[in-house]
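Example for tutorial group B:
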């Protein structure tokens, strides 16, 4: 009998996790796993032609619609775009989400980025995993020690030091991902000059070529997790 997983994808802004690893999340939903996305902010400051409150409401609707299309769950943090705090309060918030969701696997941003919120999301997640596991830390929910692995997504804003280490075949999920990721206006175009859909589709093709598949999504691991212990060379 297959053991089902629970994946928690923690992004700085609504859209971060869906665009970088949404095809992988969909793959796990199709396998019967539970997928939860936590958007620490709505990314409401990303549209220079809209009031942040109005754009935040739009992005919330878009994020909810995508989660429904995927068959995933979505949570929203209390923070404002550009102001994700690397603070005790922020650590405890994420730790409590981890204790509530009880993930077996966590996906989040790489450690370096040109966007401060991405760096903050990484730092909060790494600290929160530890805090969530400690009996001495009180958040209102019992501790959770079941996180088996943390994977870091490949984001165009987070390239420094990122090494594509784990490749996941998403050949069967890519077209579905393309169909619903454009629910986000910033992916469709017209807000930013960056060609998000083209970039991440092409990146999946490049990673697929390396992996020997049509399309793939790559992740990096913490350097310590790359250590292998063997009894001898094989």
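The residue assignment follows.
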């Amino acid at each position: 009998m297959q053991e089902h997983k629970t994946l928690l994808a923690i992004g700085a802004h609504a859209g971060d996790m869906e665009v970088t690893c949404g095809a992988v999340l969909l793959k796990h939903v199709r396998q019967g796993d539970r997928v939860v996305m936590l958007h620490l902010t709505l990314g409401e400051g990303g549209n220079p032609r809209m009031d942040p409150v109005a754009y935040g409401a739009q992005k919330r609707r878009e994020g909810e619609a995508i989660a429904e299309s995927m068959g995933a769950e979505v949570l929203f943090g209390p923070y404002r775009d550009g102001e994700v705090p690397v603070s005790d309060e922020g650590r405890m918030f994420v730790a409590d989400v981890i204790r509530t969701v009880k993930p077996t696997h966590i996906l989040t941003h790489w450690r370096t980025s040109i966007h401060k919120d991405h760096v903050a999301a990484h730092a909060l997640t790494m600290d929160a995993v530890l805090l969530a596991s400690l009996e001495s830390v009180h958040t209102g929910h019992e501790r959770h020690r079941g996180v088996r692995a943390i994977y870091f997504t490949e984001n165009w804003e987070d390239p420094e030091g990122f090494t594509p280490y784990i490749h996941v075949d998403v050949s069967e999920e890519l077209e579905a991902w393309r169909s619903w990721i454009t629910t986000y206006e910033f992916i469709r175009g017209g807000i930013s000059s960056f060609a998000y859909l083209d970039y991440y589709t092409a990146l999946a093709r490049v990673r697929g070529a390396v992996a020997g598949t049509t399309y793939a999504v790559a992740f990096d691991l913490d350097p310590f997790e790359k250590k292998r212990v063997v009894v001898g060379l094989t």
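The helical segments are 16-30, 52-70, 88-101, 116-133, 174-181, 185-188, 196-211. Compare this with the pattern of hydrophobic and polar residues in the output above.
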